[in-house]
């Protein structure tokens, strides 16, 4: 799947905000508009548009924690485009981009225990559950020096929901 991670701009923010997930997935994520506000008014998270074939097909946010681990959040693939490899491609691209930053000990994310699709996706990419929880979500980490994953210490990047 050919995707690119692009800045959110005045030209594409509407397409980002128009992304939607299936009704049964709405409990797992916030609206993209919420994430955009969180990024704009907060100081931790940065947004990215996921573009394929010139169209915005997904969205994600990332941030740096106190312990310098990088967090991926707000992963959304538009309902009409799910199950075509976009989610896998975006997580791999963002994981590898963040892991390559100097001083990054690991890349972390979290998900609801009920989110079987996300859990399967992240596990297949080598994210390992560490036993940490972030609010009511399971934390999993991927280390560039330990792709099999033994995780790392908890940080304090803050919840996205
Ligand atoms: C989770 C999500 C991002 C996956 O995106 P996607 O583009 O559909 O994923 P892909 O097509 O790349 O599939 C990758 C893997 O995810 C898992 N997966 C995706 N959809 C699934 C489903 N409906 N049921 C079970 N597993 C699923 C599978 O392991 C799949 O690998 P496979 O196709 O080899 O079986 C997407 O379902 C989504 O946006 N969900 C709603 C928002 C959400 O839950 N975000 C994550 C918050 S932590």
TrEMBL record:
Molecular-function GO terms, alphabetical: acyltransferase activity, transferring groups other than amino-acyl groups
Stored PROSITE patterns: GNAT
Ranges of residues in domain N-acetyltransferase: 3-149
Keyword Coiled coil: no
Region named Disordered: 142-161
Gene3D superfamilies in the record: 3.40.630.30, The crystal structure of the spermine/spermidine acetyltransferase from enterococcus faecali
UniProt keyword terms in alphabetical order: Acyltransferase, Transferase
Protein name: GCN5-like N-acetyltransferase
Keyword Metal-binding: no
Organism the protein comes from: Actinoplanes friuliensis DSM 7358
Transmembrane segments: none
């Amino acid at each position: 799947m050919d995707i690119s991670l692009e800045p959110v701009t005045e030209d594409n923010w509407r397409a980002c905000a128009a992304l939607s997930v299936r009704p049964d997935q709405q409990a797992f994520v916030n609206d993209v508009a919420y994430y955009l506000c969180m990024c704009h008014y907060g100081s931790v998270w940065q947004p990215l548009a996921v573009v394929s074939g010139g169209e915005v097909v997904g969205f994600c946010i990332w941030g740096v924690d106190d312990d310098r681990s990088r967090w991926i959040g707000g992963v959304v693939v538009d309902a009409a485009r799910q199950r075509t490899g976009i989610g896998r491609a975006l997580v791999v691209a963002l994981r590898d981009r963040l892991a390559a930053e100097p001083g990054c000990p690991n890349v972390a994310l979290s998900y609801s225990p009920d989110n079987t699709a996300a859990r399967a996706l992240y596990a297949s990419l080598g994210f390992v559950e560490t036993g940490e929880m972030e609010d009511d979500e399971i934390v999993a980490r991927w280390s560039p020096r330990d792709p099999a994953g033994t995780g790392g210490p908890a940080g304090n990047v803050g919840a996205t929901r």
